[in-house]
């Protein structure tokens, strides 16, 4: 029996444990925002990984966006040294999940197992991937206790809100430097036979239009900021959206619609603030003197970030030139450059070989439409040898009745274990 046959048997024998681990993780509601129960899930992982022979560190991201004494940003990094020198393979998973939303037919934090699927918020994105990577590593250690090099597993905060209290904070402190880590696998739900090489770029900005308050019965004495924002949206519809739709990338972005440049209007707020739900009065009659809009611009590796920003400003300037009384301010909120690991990178090659062995066909190479924590490992950590690979269907992320398939997790765990053996055997 080959070592990979023994790995396959080890993982198959751990199916019940894999299910239970995934359910336990789902049952810790690590909702972000605001960022709750981070310490609880890190403590759970600490107990599990310590029993598996890992040395663990609990790291709070003091001063990171969102960190407070009420909602501290906790992370865990676990490391197991091999019996002799070698490479370090790091499995990184985020521990936070997005809001529940409406439309669920199951309890989002029960971890219900039904027809081979585990349901719950975060099941797919990405507690199923975290559980699969832990089981893969534990099976590998049981089969190859004398392995070379080192294995790391991390559970990190705030990926859903930019990752600044998680991977970015750790990368700034050297946890993802090439001097410490050689290969990184992020078990995001991109598909069990697909290797995600990177992601598109993102530029978020807040646009505010300015007006003049006046009595609502005499709007001609004021200047409506919401109408000014309407002119901005009209100009975007006429000029910007068609231009973006015409651009295409050579990056293998999935789904197909994301191979173009996109812009999403994330929110609009204008006029009086909304009152509490128990308020029964009417709003006061006022002309709104301000209106704010947040835009989410996703751009391609072929585009320059400076041009992305200038293009939006050009639309605003064109509106100013043609609209009396129009004035605006624009403020950048967030920027991430596109990233894509080369197909011949060592971690890509190892996972590709493992996919071919497990599934009997070549891996598909994709790029994510949205960003994930590879951006920080690449830009801050200076580590290019990083991919996303994990179980789950990307389209289920952030949706009601989110689930992960048990068989998908088992097969992905085999891929991760095979790749681990490959990378630590040289």
TrEMBL record:
Cofactor list: Zn(2+); Co(2+)
A Pfam family matched in the record: Peptidase_M20
Enzyme class: hydrolase
GO molecular function: metal ion binding; succinyl-diaminopimelate desuccinylase activity
Record domain Peptidase M20 dimerisation: where: 198-318
Keyword Hydrolase: yes
EC number: 3.5.1.18
Assigned keywords, A-Z: Cobalt, Hydrolase, Metal-binding, Zinc
Family the UniProt entry places it in: Belongs to the peptidase M20A family.
This protein's name: Succinyl-diaminopimelate desuccinylase
């Amino acid at each position: 029996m080959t070592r990979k046959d023994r790995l396959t048997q080890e993982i198959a024998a751990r199916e019940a444990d894999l299910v239970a681990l995934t359910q336990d993780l789902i049952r810790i509601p690590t909702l972000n925002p605001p960022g709750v129960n981070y310490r609880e899930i890190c403590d759970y992982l600490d107990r599990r990984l310590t029993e598996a022979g890992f040395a663990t560190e609990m790291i709070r991201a003091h001063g990171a966006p969102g960190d407070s004494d009420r909602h501290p940003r906790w992370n865990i990094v676990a490391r197991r040294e091999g019996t002799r020198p070698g490479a370090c393979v790091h499995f990184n998973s985020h521990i936070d999940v997005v809001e529940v939303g409406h439309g669920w037919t199951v309890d989002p934090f029960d971890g219900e197992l039904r027809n081979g699927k585990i349901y719950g918020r975060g099941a797919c994105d990405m507690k199923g991937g975290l559980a699969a990577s832990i089981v893969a590593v534990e099976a590998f250690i049981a089969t190859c206790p004398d392995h070379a090099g080192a294995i790391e597993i991390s559970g990190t905060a705030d990926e859903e809100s930019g990752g600044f209290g998680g991977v970015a904070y750790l990368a700034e402190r050297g946890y993802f430097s090439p001097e410490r880590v050689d290969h990184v696998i992020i078990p995001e739900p991109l598909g069990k036979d697909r290797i995600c090489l990177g992601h598109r770029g993102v530029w978020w900005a807040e646009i505010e239009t300015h007006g003049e308050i006046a009595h609502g019965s005499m709007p001609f004495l004021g200047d409506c900021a919401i109408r000014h924002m309407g002119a901005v949206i009209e100009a975007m519809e006429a000029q910007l959206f068609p231009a973006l739709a015409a651009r295409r990338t050579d990056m293998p972005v999935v789904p197909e619609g994301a191979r173009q440049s996109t812009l999403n209007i994330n929110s609009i707020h204008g006029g009086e603030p909304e009152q509490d739900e128990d308020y029964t009065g009417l709003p006061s009659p006022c002309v709104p003197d301000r209106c704010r809009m947040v835009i989410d611009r996703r751009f391609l590796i072929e585009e320059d970030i400076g041009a992305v920003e200038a293009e939006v400003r050009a639309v605003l300037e064109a509106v100013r030139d043609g609209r009396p009384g129009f004035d605006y301010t624009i403020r950048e909120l967030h920027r991430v450059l596109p990233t894509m690991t080369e197909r011949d990178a060592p971690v890509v090659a190892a996972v590709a070989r493992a996919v071919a062995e497990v599934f009997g066909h070549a891996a598909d190479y994709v790029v994510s439409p949205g960003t994930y924590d590879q951006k920080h490992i690449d830009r801050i950590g200076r580590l290019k040898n990083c991919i996303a690979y994990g179980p789950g269907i990307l389209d289920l992320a952030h949706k009601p009745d989110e689930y992960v398939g048990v068989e998908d997790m088992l097969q992905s765990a085999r891929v991760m274990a095979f790749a681990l053996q490959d990378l630590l055997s040289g």
